[in-house]
């Protein structure tokens, strides 16, 4: 989930960025239509859109690295862009974990006494371990594709599965309660606090990444909600993101 400024988007050069296609593991295929069940996205500040992007962003690199580990071609450009994409997605996963903790803390202040603990024991520890494995494997892949791809593929596949499971639980349990009980102003403060943990320049990735996750029918509505600062960012970042995405997917020579 991103702040209003960090999650607005706009039209990039030459039009909107085309939607990303991903391969969803059988374990999580049942969730492929979950965002649609919650209604169409109308703003890039919507919970559903960030969740959609987190699912696809982690799965894309997991699938790409798995293919490379089984000798799919990986030129230096693809290697470089995979490192860039993975680094940015890992930052988004960490920020979302901080956001969820903040929302759970805000919710715990307003739920009725005697309500069950909203925090899942060990959940953050498992995510921290999965992130650490991915971060440790990434430099080796950056140096040597053949040596690094197998370990990074395993790490990213495990992370993608864990992220999907955590988002399932969040959508089924935490978010409905947050939407019902936590005031919008307090939610916005939590979002801003989580986004402050991100590295400089992250919005150059995040904005077109979120726009990529929009379904075609949603884009006109979503772009109408874009802030002027977001449109400025997208004018500079949209084409760059499209090249990164295509390289990650192995669509460039």
In short:
With about 250 residues, this protein is an all-alpha fold. It has helices spanning about 5, 35, 45-70, 75-110, 125-145, 145-180, 185-195, 205-210, 215-225, 230-250. The longest helix is centred in the middle third of the chain and has 37 residues, at about 145-180.
Could you say how many structural domains there are in total? Answer: 1
Strand percentage lies at under 5%
Work out the helix count: 10
Distance between the termini: 34 Å
Content-based structural category: mainly alpha
Please mark out the parts with pLDDT under 50 across 5 or more consecutive residues, or reply none: 1-37
Q: What is the radius of gyration?
A: 18 Å
**H/E element sequence:** HHHHHHHHHH
User: What portion of residues is helical?
Assistant: 55-70%
Biased composition (Low complexity): 16-40
Biased composition (Polar residues): 1-10
Protein name: Hemerythrin HHE cation binding domain-containing protein
Region (Disordered): 1-40
